[in-house]
Amino acid sequence: MKYAIIGCGLIGKKRLAGLPAGSELAVACDTNLARAEELMKAAKTGRAVSDYKQAVADSRVDVVIVATINSELADVSAAAIRAGKPVLVEKPAGISVRQVDELIALADQHGVCVRVGFNHRYHPALLQAREILSSGAMGDLMFLRARYGHGGRVGYDQEWRADPKLSGGGELIDQGIHLIDLAGWFLGEFRTIEGHATTCFWKMPVDDNAFLSLRTAKGQTAWLHVSCTEWKNLFSFEIYGRNAKLQIDGLGGSYGVEKLYHYQMKPEMGPPDTRVYEFPGPDESWRRELNEFEKDIQMKRKPAAGLKEAKAALHVVEEIYRRSGFNFDSTPPKH
Fold first, then answer.
1. CATH number for the domain including 65?
2. Please, which of 68, 156, 246, 310 could form a disulfide with 7 given CB 3.0 to 4.6 Å?
């Protein structure tokens, strides 16, 4: 397949590196044409443009990847959908539930396949955890606990993520939406949403920490904390079943080697049987996700995660922001 990548920053580069075997870049697009040209040169194929409407209309383009800042995700995705092109839009897919609802209606109207970039689902430790859960070894799930955070950098409070008009929020809509999606992937729909977002350290009008307690209709709970005052990058995801516990630490790179600990309860209880899986290789989650997206397109199946899952996660984000006194979504409907 031939791709247009719209937004040629860090994530656009990751998407280029993760294109499935046999696929190639047809168009690189960025409002900063020099960045688009840089991506095109790295790909050694395609052309560079600065207008996303030109990119999605290109007859050579089969699939569109939208990797812009948050405030542009919905507009660019809508243009690609209208052009009849399958779309992978990076999380959070929009800066409000309303924007995602509009994309859902548009995708249904045009019969276009839309996947949302929740690449964490394709990390090997998370995939292994799903396999263990599916085997029945854990029994019924009771609750999970997860933390995700980084420490920012000098000038972080001056970047686009600190501007609510561009980001739609702070740490909760950034890294937090990954934790919310993963928690829902394991536990299901959350009916009770509690918690708060706050700004502890960074001098910016968006949150730098959020603390959540989410419960399903069955009473299963997800306790989540996301932070950009973590100082040392951290990913920790613990899943508790009646018969076993799974603990995932690290995501590779600065987050440390990705590991999965499987603690299986014995009939007599006491110290559990323990198995440790390590995944020291490079991050292949981006490539795995795009491989699945191409299968979505070829098999005409509904993507997971798609716009429905993005809407569910954004609903949690919006409710926490509402409870915390943040009002970021003041943009008028466009689609």
1. 3.40.50.720
2. 68
Measured torsion, CA atoms of residues 332, 307, 235, 329, in degrees rounded to the nearest 10? 10
Task: Identify whether residues 63 and 178 lie together within a single domain.
Answer: no
Look at residues 30, 299, 70 and name the one whose alpha carbon lies nearest to residue 166. 70
Structural domain includes residue 325: no
Going by their DSSP bridges, the two strands 141-149 and 234-241 should be labelled as antiparallel
User: What is the full per-residue pLDDT of the chain (335 aa) written as tens digits?
Assistant: 999 999 999 999 999 999 999 999 999 999 999 999 999 999 999 999 999 999 999 999 999 999 999 999 999 999 999 999 999 999 999 999 999 999 999 999 999 999 999 999 999 999 999 999 999 999 999 999 999 999 999 999 999 999 999 999 999 999 999 999 999 999 999 999 999 999 999 999 999 999 999 999 999 999 999 999 999 999 999 999 999 999 999 999 999 999 999 999 999 999 999 999 999 989 999 999 999 999 999 999 999 999 999 999 999 999 999 999 998 864 433 43
Residues 215, 201 share a domain: yes
